[in-house]
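Lab manual, section 2.4: Encoding a predicted structure.

Procedure: take the sequence of the chain (346 residues), apply the prediction step described in section 2.3, and record the output as structure tokens. A sample record is shown.
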Amino acid sequence: MRANTVIMIILAGVFGVLAVVLANIWLANQRSAIAKTGDIPRDTVVVASVALKFGDTLSADKLREVAWPTGAVPTGAFKTTKDLLAGEGSKQALQAIGVNEPILATKITGPGQRATLSAVLGEGMKAVSIRVNDVLGVAGFVFPGDRVDILLTRTVRNTEGVDQSFVDVLLQSMKVLAVDQVADESKDSPTVVKAVTLEVSTKDAQKLTLAAGAGQLSLALRQAAASKGETTERVTVSDLTAETPADVAAKQAERDKKVAADAAAAAERKRADDKIAGLEKAVDRVGSQLDQLSKVKPVPAVVTAPASKEVVKEVIKYLEPAPPKNVTVGVFRGVKLESYDVPRQP
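Recorded output:
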């Protein structure tokens, strides 16, 4: 027999013995734990022997007592069926209770009370109903016990007279008490409803009532474990275009370019207007000077004949020159000079 085969057989035997020893140790520990569990002080707790729905009346045949560790008894639990059913009048379930689930005082009504929404409301809370449809009500997938966000859609007119539409998150993590007239949390089939009843504070009830007339309310179903609020912001129609930062920068650059071009054009128009105004003033000065020259009478000149020659008398007549009818005016059009003949002002 080869040496390698002998070594493998020896190792297999060692590992087999080790596995048996470890298994015996684990079984001994389990027996010890079970023995210790039997020494824990125990008490009794009343649980549901059948599944209970909202509004079901509690009776002895629907309840039973089970052993429960003394230190782990839930707050509000009943030790005996007699204690649970004590009092005048029957008690009803306020929410769905599963089989073997402890019956707590917060899940049932008092003696002789009916299972109504008022009994389900927490201290200081109110029940408010809002109108929904197949779309606003999340296609009927909202059930009693769910938590939803309330969205408000409005259209207002800004200072420029343009209508703007936007959506705000009005309330977050609101508990649904009932859909239509059904408050049973065990209901699991989607149904298109016309109204949803929510548990809200007094201030939130005021907000909901005011918002119902200010715009359109819709529901957003939250994850069952997501009860904390989150930071939200208003969404407008401009947010639907999904513009990238590059698109925004390009539009801003285009706006800046247009503003610069408009400013340059305005400056050019101002320079042209200044030149025209200067020419008009120059024309007025020239016209004034011509008027003054036309009013001046020329001085007659006297010519003396030489002494050695015969004196010849000459008669000189001076004619007053007629003022020109037109005046030439030059106007710059940009860098081009254009001349115009305009009538002279009297």
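Check your result against the sample. The first strand starts at residue 42 and ends at 48.
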